[in-house]
């Protein structure tokens, strides 16, 4: 899980390389871990499943760690500030009020 300030790093690993990006990592129990990550999951693959030209990996979490901070959120083809409005846009009605015109209680 990346911090909310890591959009360039996210794009870099999503196939849009950022030239000269300083990707810092450290080794944790023999695995590379991004230095500024908010959460880290070490997993062992339990079962690979071939689906067309993709593979879905069923894995068991063997170790994890986290720190408190705001995460980078990506959905609806854009980055968001928390689960709210897209970054760089004014806030509008929350998604649960827009979809059907009905309001839902969200705790």
Describe the protein in words.
The chain is mainly beta. It contains two helices and six strands, in the order H-E-E-E-E-E-E-H. It has helices spanning 7-13, 95-98, and strands spanning 25-28, 31-34, 39-51, 54-66, 72-75, 78-81. The strands form three sheets. A two-stranded antiparallel sheet has the order 1-2. A two-stranded antiparallel ribbon has the order 3-4. A hairpin with a 2-residue loop joins strand 1 (25-28) and strand 2. The longest helix has 7 residues, at 7-13. The chain is globular and about 40 Å long.
Radius of gyration, whole Å: 17 Å
Order of helices and strands: HEEEEEEH
Note the gap between the termini: 23 Å
What are the segments in which pLDDT stays under 50 over at least 5 consecutive residues? 95-107
Helix/strand-derived category reads mainly beta
Strand order of the largest sheet: 1-2
- H/I helix tally: 2
Mean pLDDT: 81
Shape: globular
Helix content: 10-25%
- Secondary structure tally: strands: 6
Q: Mind summarizing the main beta sheet? A: 2 strands, antiparallel
Task: Report strand %.
Answer: 35-45%
List keywords for this structure.
two-stranded antiparallel sheet; 6 strands
């Amino acid at each position: 899980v990346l911090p909310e300030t890591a959009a360039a790093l996210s794009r870099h690993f999503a196939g849009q390389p950022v030239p000269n990006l300083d990707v810092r990592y450290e080794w944790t129990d023999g695995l590379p871990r991004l230095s500024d990550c908010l959460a880290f999951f070490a997993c062992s693959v339990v079962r690979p499943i071939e689906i067309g030209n993709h593979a879905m990996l069923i894995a068991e979490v063997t170790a994890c760690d986290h720190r408190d901070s705001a995460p980078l959120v990506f959905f609806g083809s854009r980055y968001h500030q928390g689960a709210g409005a897209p970054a760089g846009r004014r806030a509008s009605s929350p998604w649960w009020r827009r979809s059907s015109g009905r309001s839902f209680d969200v705790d």
